[in-house]
Amino acid sequence: MTKIIEIKNLVKRYKELIALDHLNLDIHEGEIFGLLGPNGSGKTTCINCILSLLNYDKGEIAVFGKPLNPDSYESKRNIGVVFQNVAVFDKLSVYENIDYFCGLYVKDKKERKALVDEAIDFVELNDFRKMKPKQLSGGLLRRLNIACGIAHKPKLVLLDEPTVAVDPQSRNQILEGIKKLNENGSTIIYTSHYMEEVEQICSRIAILDHGRCIALGTKEELKNMINIGEKITVEAITLNEMQYGDIKDLENIFEISYDDEILRLSSTKSAQNLVNLLDYVQKNGIKFGKIYTELPTLNDVFLELTGKELRD
Amino acid sequence: MKLSLKYSFLNTIREFTSVFWCGVFPLILATLFYLSFGGYLEGDEFSLVNTGLVIQNDDSSFMEVIESVDDEYLDISEYNIDQANEALSNGEINGYYIIDEEVTLKVSTESVSTSIQSSILSSYEKNAALIEDILENEPENLNSALASMSNVKTNINDVGLSGKIIGVNNQFFYALIAMACLYGNFLGTYAINNIQADLSPLGMRRSVTPTNKIQVILSEFITNVGIHFFNLIILIMYIKLLGVVLDGSIWLILLVCLVGAVNGVALGMLIGVSCKKSENFKVGISLVVSMSLSFLAGLMFAGMKGIVQVNAPIVNMINPAALISDSFYSMTVFDSMERLFIDLSILIAETAVMLLISFMIVRRQRYDSI
């Protein structure tokens, strides 16, 4: 598989703070690669180093097989960037903004017009073409931000937390759009601290913490790295002290809570956990309203690897 | 480049800061100046020069000259020598003539008034020498020669200020034009803010495009100078309409405006690249810098430039506002272009230095932190 980006041993310091600590990453053509980590974990610094905006202390970065320098115009032509902060001209309309940024990549007027129209369709801003950014809602503004970054149809798109402060409906539209971009042939690097988003769209994920890559793989691979199995929740269940103690002692159960007739169990990996619980409940004639299980999330992965929540 | 120019132009002219501070505010200020001065913008009448007269020989033909200019150019009072010295030292008179076998003039300091007194005397001395010559060589033409020489006023007008005379209030307007030129720094600061990746998200986005950075800067620079040049032309037309004396060829006026616009935008770019503070902070800095320089050039107090000239002449030599204001003054008052070209040369040199520093800083394309 062709490597689009290759990062070797990357170190970036801000005075005493180590923002990236010997980071190694390979990003392959055609994938949606997620950089997941809490605020301050080094995601944006990593993106800015890849884009050659930041100096770094050590390491190598190759984009499309070559080091990317500020004057690597040929490589830059194939890169689209959607920054965390909306980067558009306040005084230009939606159309003018997209036209301007697309024009920095595409010189042919006809081709550019077609690309701009396509980008406007893509982010569904057709009804807002003549509006100024200040007249747009947060979600629409984010979509304009994305359109400015992808209008020239780049082979590689870097999206740095594009859904921050966006309503759920716009968020879903943005995520669907990113999947569509990928289906159309773009390789995507997506940074976020929202694990649900990363789980939803990324084919491979790197979890960053304190500038280090603490885990890398598909979401299934990441979840397999940890010992946590499913979480079982039983609602409207009445237990006495003895029954509570028996359930606590069931095999693989390592965490239990019982409050307001809701029983919550966390277990280590095993196919028998739910069966064991149901057996016990049935044998003891315990009635309950509803039972369901949840598979471990990336937050659980992060929690087990670092001892803290992703959003801490 | 064309597309960059187009959108840079549209973005700038739609920006309140640039339209108000660079275009509208100088027009408001010009109107306020005009209203405050009540239209006293025409060339000043000669105010009579207080002059002492110490007569030690009343047979001198200089007495006739004095009679002809009394109450026209000079306000003459007779003194003895001690009284004259006292009047001179306490400022009652600007100078006094001692009329004896020869006529001498004593003044305290050199000024426009004393140059008038001196001119009258030198005109008399020249004529006296001429009369002696005529008596010696062509005595028959003496009468006609005396008739032509009796028009001392004509001679005085020729030598009065060796050029045109303007009202002091006009200088406020020259300082105002200078201030308007320097207000181009708002445009420069704004442009730099939108170019530098370490200053704005827009700068980041522009830095990752496959466009040469110098080209981006150049398009912003050309647009902003163009817009500001247009602002200045509107201002010049407006203040001419108000009756401000602004002589000189239209091409020279345009040249001074263009150099002023370039200087203002370059100053803004320098401010923009020099600090990493917020845009509003930089607008504040731009305002303080341009107002301070304009104050020193006499925008709020006409005598300020003179005070600076006496105490720190180097400030007037490098203050762009003083240089621009002086360019308009020189163009209007002096026939010689020498002073104007010196002013313009210094302005161009300063602009080149500011642009060079700005470009050097902006050229740096990777940052330690963003």
Please give a handful of descriptors for the protein shown.
heterodimer, A: 312 residues, alpha/beta, six-stranded mixed β-sheet, four-stranded antiparallel β-sheet, 11 helices, 34% helix, B: 370 residues, mainly alpha, four-stranded mixed β-sheet, 67% helix, elongated
Describe the SSE topology.
The complex is a heterodimer of chains A (312) and B (370).
Chain A: E1 3-14, E2 17-28, E3 32-36, H1 43-50, E4 58-63, E5 66-67, H2 73-76, E6 79-82, H3 94-103, H4 109-122, H5 138-150, E7 156-160, H6 168-183, E8 187-192, H7 195-201, E9 204-209, E10 212-217, H8 219-224, E11 228-235, H9 241-248, E12 253-259, E13 262-268, H10 273-283, E14 290-294, H11 298-306
Parallel strand pairs in A: 3-8, 3-9, 6-7, 7-8
Antiparallel strand pairs in A: 1-2, 1-4, 4-5, 9-10, 11-13, 11-14, 12-13
Chain B: H1 2-13, H2 16-37, E1 49-55, H3 62-69, E2 74-78, H4 81-89, E3 95-99, E4 103-107, H5 112-137, H6 142-149, H7 152-159, H8 170-182, H9 184-193, H10 201-207, H11 213-241, H12 250-274, H13 279-296, H14 304-311, H15 313-318, H16 320-333, H17 338-363
Helix pairs in contact in B: 1-11, 2-8, 2-11, 5-6, 5-7, 8-11, 8-12, 8-13, 8-16, 9-11, 9-12, 9-13, 11-12, 12-16, 12-17, 16-17
General description of the model:
The complex is a heterodimer of chains A (312) and B (370). Chain A has helices spanning 43-50, 73-76, 94-103, 109-122, 138-150, 168-183, 195-201, 219-224, 241-248, 273-283, 298-306, and strands spanning 3-14, 17-28, 32-36, 58-63, 66-67, 79-82, 156-160, 187-192, 204-209, 212-217, 228-235, 253-259, 262-268, 290-294. The relative contact order of chain A is 0.14. Chain A has 11 helices and 14 strands. The model of chain A has no long low-confidence stretch (mean pLDDT 90). By secondary structure, chain A is an alpha/beta fold. In chain A, the strands form 3 sheets. A 6-stranded mixed sheet of chain A has the order 6-7-8-3-9-10, with helices on both faces. In chain A, strands 2-1-4-5 form a 4-stranded antiparallel sheet, with helices on one face. A 4-stranded antiparallel sheet of chain A has the order 12-13-11-14, sandwiched between helices. Chain B is mainly alpha-helical and 370 residues long. Chain B contains 17 helices and 4 strands. A 4-stranded mixed sheet of chain B has the order 2-1-3-4, sandwiched between helices. In chain B, helix 8 packs antiparallel against helix 11 (213-241). The longest helix of chain B has 29 residues, at 213-241. Mean pLDDT of chain B is 82; it is low at 152-163. Chain A binds chain B through residues 14, 48, 51-55, 70-71, 73-74, 76-77, 79, 81, 83, 85-89, 91-92, 96, 99-101, 103-105, 148-149, and chain B through 3-4, 7, 10-11, 14-15, 194, 197, 200-202, 204-213, 365-370.
